[in-house]
Amino acid sequence: MAAQTVATTPTVDLGPAAALSCRECKERFPLGPIFACESCFGPLEIAYDLPAGDPEALRARIEAGPNSIWRYAPLLPVPADVARKPSLNPGFTKLVKADNLARELGVTGGLYVKDDSGNPTHSFKDRVVAIAVEAARAFGFTTLSCSSTGNLAGAVGAAAARAGFRSCVFIPHDLEQGKVVMAAVYGGELVGIEGNYDDVNRFCSELIGDPLGEGWGFVNVNLRPYYGEGSKTLAYEICEQLGWRLPDQIVVPIASGSQLTKIDKGLQELIALGLVEDRPYKIFGAQAEGCSPVSVAFKGGHDVVRPQKPDTIAKSLAIGNPADGPYVLDIARRTGGAVEDVDDAQIVEAIKLLARTEGIFAETAGGVTVGVTRKLIEAGLLDPALSTVVLNTGDGLKTLDAVAPTTGPTATIRPSLDAFRDAGLAH
Ligand SMILES: *Cc1c(COP(=O)(O)O)cnc(C)c1O
Question: What positions does the domain Tryptophan synthase beta chain-like PALP occupy (predicted)?
């Protein structure tokens, strides 16, 4: 099952990463390009020897680090000198205090937008790819690959170009033009697959087990345990930017669910290390109605996530069979959060709401989180009196099609003052 395509040496240096550990049966394996437990087929994750000792000293060390995810290198599966290697240096994006949006939504406890559109390829995927690249280097891969709903393909293409890898990435054939161009412009191979994301992912799993894919590091398949850790940096940054405090509530978009589970892991680590005070927080998951397998399971009280065939404008979240779905359900229930969904019209409305209140142009995934936040407040599930962080994980310029039909010039006029007066726009 677990494809061991490259011989690993026991001397792989991935910093504090000690081993791979099965999330189900807890069996441990040496660090390598494997992703499923050899005993029970459960997903593998990284187990660490994290720096013990004085939280004050660790905080100071982090604060003195670079303005990128590499400031958290002591908590990531990367070599200590990672910041000196060629990388896009993602992360340390803005945490925007969204007072105007808070007024619109009736939030009084402090509302923040963590705006990951500010990453090098304009989505949160640069975080996860940067970590996977270090694993690919350590395991001797020369080609980087992925199955992508769009943003990941661009992030892999760009990171490969910068770090000196060949890249060949796979996407569904019908993505937005902005995503296709972003994925192709960095010069790697881009392959459109006639099917949806779940078809692309199945194809990549077959390719890994075949000699055709030998020597390839698929960032979200055989490097998935490493890739996933990149999402922890969102949790670290949010807490550091809040003055080393946990937010009360976080609203996170769900595609495969990896990001949400790793944000929880990151918060747990900060608590365990004494970097933040140990107090409760709630994690909320957000999906589009047209691809809402986790939301449906949550609301139905189920433990099993039933796959769907996606049909939504939120294409970056259109994974009908999310690998981490059951873990997302656990986290939402354990923390007292919820999982909710909004329809396409509500997504567009929320994109415009965020743009007109805060000057942030989100991609459809950001419309999903903002729209779900509003819906959760209305349903009494999200407490407006508590501090709340909403993630915007991508840039609206990549999903122009979503808003273009309902957004355009207020008027088009001849270049004369009379025409302008007639248009009724003078104040
Ligand atoms: C990939 C992606 C996500 C979340 O992905 P997970 O698979 O759940 O980790 C969220 N937003 C955007 C814009 C993405 O591209």
Answer: 88-394
Please, are residues 335 and 261 in contact by the beta-carbon 8 Å criterion? no
Q: Of 62, 56, 88, nearest to 76 (Cα)?
A: 62
> On the CB side of 149, how many CA atoms lie within 13 Å of its CA?
26
Q: Going from the N-terminus, what domains does the chain have, and what CATH number goes with each?
A: 19-126+229-427 (3.40.50.1100)
Ligand 1: does its nearest atom lie under 6 Å from the Cβ of 253?
yes
3-state secondary structure of 343: coil
Average pLDDT over residues 154-158: 97
The pair of three-digit structure tokens given for residue 89, joined into one six-digit string: 């240096």
**Under 8 Å CB-to-CB from 234, ≥6 apart: which residues?**
114, 116, 124, 127, 259, 263, 266, 391
Strand partners, 288: 291, 342
Instruction: Count the helix, strand and coil residues of the chain and give each as a percent rounded to the nearest 5.
Output: 40, 15, 40
- Cα–Cα distance between 405 and 380 in angstroms, integer? 33
Q: Can you give the length of the chain in residues?
A: 427
Q: How far is the CA of 221 from the centre of ligand 1 (A)?
A: 15
pTM, two decimals, is 0.95
Test site for ligand 1: of 393, 397, 399, most ligand atoms within 8 A of the Cβ: 393
241-276 confidence digits (pLDDT tens) = 999 999 999 999 999 999 999 999 999 999 999 999
